[in-house]
Amino acid sequence: MENSRKEKIRAxxxxxxxxxxDKHPLNDNxxxxxxxxxxxxxxxxxxxxxxxxxxxNFKATDFEVSLVDSVDVIASLIASQVSA
Amino acid sequence: xxxxxxxxxKPSVVAWAQTRAGKCxxxxxxxxxxxxxxxxxEAMFYVIAMGLFAYYxxxxxxxxxxxxxxxxxxxxxxxxxxxIGEVALTEGLVALSxxxxxxxxxxxxxxxxxxxxxxxxxxKQSLLARRPVLYLLGLECLLCLLSYxxxxxxxxRLALWSLLCVLTxxxxxxxxxxxxxxxxxxxxxxxxxxxxxxxxGGSSSSPIGKGAAYLRKVFAKTPEELAITQIKxxxxxxxxxxxxxxxxxxxxxxxxxxxxxxVSEAMDASLQNHAYSLGMEWASxxxxxxxxxxxxxxxxxxxxxxxxxxxxxxPRLSWxxxxxxxLIDYFNRFHYYFKELLVDFFFIPTFFSVFKKHPRLRxxxxxxxxxxxxxxxxxxxxxxxxxxxxxxxxxxETFHSYLFYALVLATGIGISQVRANAGYxxxxxxGGRIQSFFVVWGFVTLLHIFGDESRNHSLLERxxxxxxxxxxx
Lengths: 84, 473
Known about the structure:
The complex is a heterodimer.
Chain A: H1 2-19, H2 40-54, H3 71-83
Helix pairs in contact in A: 1-3
Chain B: H1 2-5, H2 11-17, H3 20-35, H4 40-55, H5 60-75, H6 78-90, H7 98-122, H8 127-130, H9 132-146, H10 154-180, H11 189-194, H12 212-218, H13 223-257, H14 263-271, H15 278-309, H16 327-334, H17 336-351, H18 359-381, H19 386-397, H20 400-421, H21 430-451, H22 459-469
């Protein structure tokens, strides 16, 4: 289950990176936003995607870049919301 | 050529950059490049400060703090001094030096910022901690009101005005520091204060390198990363110099040789019925957009280059804006740090607060709040000194044109954002790229008539001028 989620997230992110001219490989623990590979507009697009695709619920005051900075942490975030 | 230019990918070069000779050579090159735009003493100061920061970890916070405040006290307070001097003159307090008043106001502001950070840290549910921009806007408005003509007079008014003149250029830096107070791994107060107009950022009110939270995350973690970052710093400084020479040549060609007027001059001539030829009016507009874009890129590359020299892996301020394929792409590429500021303080809070059940409207409105409202507010505040010479109404009245510019730009960017989210992708063929270039830059160029911040012409005059360029009048 988690692997298929990761696959989906990875595919979405790779598409985003490709659009920005980044053709480097993406490891599950690679930083996306803090490292500057993707910018904050892409981050918000990711938030929309996660809300629509995985029903993740973000709260404005609790939102931090670190919540969505790599495939691993995104997968953990989804898993924590599913289990809750 | 690309392979040659990508020298940071070569292990031998990276290894050399970590040796004593390599470090000295990189710093020397950076000094020589910075010397071409700054006085040699300033360039020397920047390079030494950045070098000490990069190579002496135990001194980092102190070096950062001292370099920031040295720049604040010795290199750049001219516009603040002028604004303070204006009120000192009005209040008949000419014996007081505006420079000294600015220094005192800066010390008071820094102590106030320190206090606010401590408060936000200990009161995490307070308005200051949860909505720092709203709180600071309230403070800014209060200072505007209290220092307005007729409320207070003499020393009290001058003191309030001086504090306002210092708070305004530090507004967004303080906002970033306050946001960071909620983080578990926040930086020390000394580091936070050091990020308020860091030595590399010049006088821009838009924080290059954002705040402490971002800087500590992008700092090079290993000697190899540091070497690569510093090589990239020197490369960016070289590119800035190339652009700077290009601008110099183009300025000579357009102004001294072709005698192309500024947009403001062309508009004046048109309004007085002595219009330049249509070709000259278009040349004036295009040259103005080119000159402005070059100015932003050159300033940004020098600033980011200097920041990278200290070891911060900062993204470029301006990244190939001519390759923008959509308006949202242009927004991302033209001024990275201004866009980040708007996203951090306007887009994200709006996005998480409104229209949750209407995804497209939510996205459009959040983008509009950032590129329109945030953009207009930032520019209105950045000229707060006009409050004294124009009064509040005069300031608002002459701001109509920029407001129109921001709202049209925001609508365009908002629509572009919604389309991108719906899956629209412009063609990548040569024809598609050329079409994208003309659509994006055509829009930006036409809108530039309204975005000129000179405040010399009304919105109606600018609209009339635009229409005359298409011979509609």
